[in-house]
Amino acid sequence: MAKHRGRGIASINYPIGMNLGGDPSQALVHSNPSGKFTVSLSSIDLGQGMKSVTRQICAETLGVPVEDVYVDTADSDTGPHCMGSFASRGTHRVGNAVMAAAKEARGVMMEAAAEELEVNAADLDTDGRGNIHVKGAPHRSISTKDVAIAAQFKQGRTISGRGIFLVPLSEVNPETGEMSPATCYAHACLVAEVEVDDETGEVAMVRMDSAYELGRALNPRLVEQQLVGGAWMGVSHALFETPEPYYPDPAHGPRDFVEYLMPGPGDICPHDIAVLERPAADGPFGAKGPGEMCANPVLPAVANAIFNAVGVRMDELPITPEKVLRAIKAQGGARPQARR
Amino acid sequence: MTKTPLQFRHNGRDVAVFVDGGVNLLVALRELIGDMTPKFGCGQGGCGACSVLIDGELHLSCLTLAETVNGRAVETLDGLKDGPNLHPLQRAFMEQFAAQCGYCTPGMLMAAKALLDRNPSPTRAEVIETISGNICRCTGYEPIINAVLAAASGGRARA
């Protein structure tokens, strides 16, 4: 009886967004008389950073400090429509909608500023610090706050913008089955090293090395955070989590956190990540999005690593100790494969 | 049902409430005291989101009968910061991006505080052991472990 090390690799393409009858998201941007901006969305931030990234996109497009933008995702009943936070679509779809809305709002803001400075709007630029000035003459400037006040109380103008981004439904060609389910794809490759105990069937993660290509990383720390956490979730899917019973009777299935297994802090392993940025032509500032792809390459890489370690080909998830042990027994013992 | 008078120190302040028999500390804190920082995750001691300190010791408030803290000192995340100044652990969690959805964070911070209070320079293995009763769904634990270690070494640097 022994522990066997094995290494496995997997590469994936991941489509950004979905294609079930078209994939739209809307955004509204408006300024308050204080010169601060509010982005209204129905898109949900469940910790992945939707608010941070849409805030950055809005501020960059408007040409104002990021501190001057507030993102409101409070209520999907009253907010502009969004398909939702899934399919790695948030940064791409919602980001594009926010960009469109912010562009329109910026146009009105420049018109209002032009009226105050008595110049042509086309001659104006933002400094990114809360001021609008005449190009080439930075001393002829007005703060976005004063523009917002003038628009509200003097000009009677709403500094606001509407945005929608729609990836239309792609019909399937009945002859060839061909379609374009997504406008851009993220890519990943991951090498997993595992240790398999041929006495207990337990699989321990030893290390992971990965490369993710996800367009421009708009917020590199949030991207890294998603990749680290998402890979953990991939390990969880590969080796632990199942709503299915461990034994044939569903009554033996997990009912709560005590029985629904997930890896704990002692089960994680070193993970070295390389982020590659190939901006997407139709992404906001070139972004695609990490999203679900964080977890996906882990599962096949772990399955391949187990094959490399003990020679059993696992084709059902999660790869629990019981399944590994049964497979090892069925082939008459562990058969370590050649290390590459 | 008869209500029992209950007095204890909550983050350094005396509080007095009447509780129904069998009410757990988590419910008492959230519904009677109004301290929403301990979170309800599983209600059966499986996730650690409700972790609090009782007389400096780490406890799961969902499994603690409220009546048992009579006369004792209960610390929650709400008492961690000093006025506007965040606790070194909170700062480290921010700087290390140790939260995504944030639901496990109060429990993680209280578990980490219990560790650093008795062991200001823990090893990585000791940090892992300490938070092993706390489930995090988002971060993969790595940033949390790093944050606790960073707060510990920050504390050492000041000492």
UniProtKB/TrEMBL annotation, chain A:
One of its GO terms (molecular function) is oxidoreductase activity. Signal peptide: none annotated. InterPro entries: AldOxase/xan_DH_MoCoBD2, AldOxase/xan_DH_Mopterin-bd_sf, N-heterocyclic_Hydroxylase. SUPFAM superfamilies: Molybdenum cofactor-binding domain (SSF56003). Residues 3-268 form the Aldehyde oxidase/xanthine dehydrogenase second molybdopterin binding domain. Pfam families: MoCoBD_2. It comes from the Bacteria. PANTHER family: ALDEHYDE DEHYDROGENASE (PTHR47495:SF2). This is Aldehyde oxidase. It comes from Bradyrhizobium lablabi.
From TrEMBL, chain B:
GO terms for molecular function: 2 iron, 2 sulfur cluster binding; metal ion binding; oxidoreductase activity. SUPFAM superfamilies: 2Fe-2S ferredoxin-like, CO dehydrogenase ISP C-domain like. The keyword Iron-sulfur applies. The keyword Oxidoreductase applies. Pfam families: Fer2, Fer2_2. Residues 4-80 form the 2Fe-2S ferredoxin-type domain. InterPro entries: 2Fe-2S-bd (IPR002888), 2Fe-2S-bd_dom_sf (IPR036884), 2Fe-2S_ferredoxin-like_sf (IPR036010), 2Fe-2S_ferredoxin-type (IPR001041), 2Fe2S_fd_BS (IPR006058), Beta-grasp_dom_sf (IPR012675), Diverse_Oxidoreductases (IPR051452). This is Ferredoxin.
